[in-house]
């Protein structure tokens, strides 16, 4: 069952608080009140309410500043803020919009309007809560996979950084760049369904083991489910091991049938695998990794145009800058030669 809906009311006039509280409590909301913006900020941090209803003129922090702080904090930015302004305060509304306010009510507050606005914003908040938690569960799973293998530590963060920078270099839309970021975290989430004996095996995988390993693409796609938020991410998860000549998996797609974002993710996946230390080899230099990727294009695995763009992007120096960021060096263990993780 859902928790009761909570509203924080901020107003420096006790009579206004009493009025708003009375209306909301009658409608089944739990109300916490603050007499200034500073106290309201603390209350919101503590109670994580479903909505904030704030007056504009208040001591310590005014309503705009309160709103700005709430919207600027990752932990509170999704909480809707309704500012209560005096009639005809056009300037206040504009400043409120700039501060990130979600809606406005005019004094004196009309009870029906208050209830309708609060109800619809709380419904929206619950919806974003659901999306937020669904995505964070999947990202946690992806990081769990990464944590199982000491040699891939930081891989998700780097993948997300490389892929979004590459996407920005190509001038992709914000939505596509965001999908690349999420794809960076989620591309290998399906490895959660691959046993340690295969995932962490230092030696060459047998063909049966490789067949199991390949399933991480399908498992990952299933884990992403029907979330609309992951609409553009799902093809990345499923197709990041396809090759341009059709020799990849899981579907053996060829040429432009392979989604562009999946092709981009495949290139940065190879780059990261080659430039980080693995159980069987030291990291390649940036130049050697780029040469290897160009070689994959010559072999027919990658699009020569896309690899050309990747090389142009790499010459900007951004890739090496991102690669140089933490986490630091990983332990080196000896010897066995295996199929490269990027090829897995
Ligand atoms: Fe993968």
CATH class of the largest domain: Mainly Alpha
Bound molecules: fe (ii) ion
Q: Categorize the overall geometry.
A: elongated
| Total count of strands | 5
Return the CATH architecture of the largest domain. Orthogonal Bundle
Q: Trace the largest sheet across and list its strands.
A: 2-1-3-4-5
What is the averaged pLDDT score?
Answer: 87
Integer-rounded radius of gyration: 26 Å
Name the structural class.
Answer: alpha/beta
What share of the residues does DSSP label as strand, in percent?
5-15%
Q: What's the CATH topology name of the largest domain?
A: Hypothetical protein af1432
CATH superfamily heading of the largest domain: Hypothetical protein af1432
Query: Strand-and-helix sequence, N→C?
Result: EHEHEHEHEHHHHHHHHHHH
- Number of continuous helical runs: 15
Helix content: 40-55%
**Distance between the ends:** 43 Å
Query: How many domains comprise the coordinates?
Result: 2
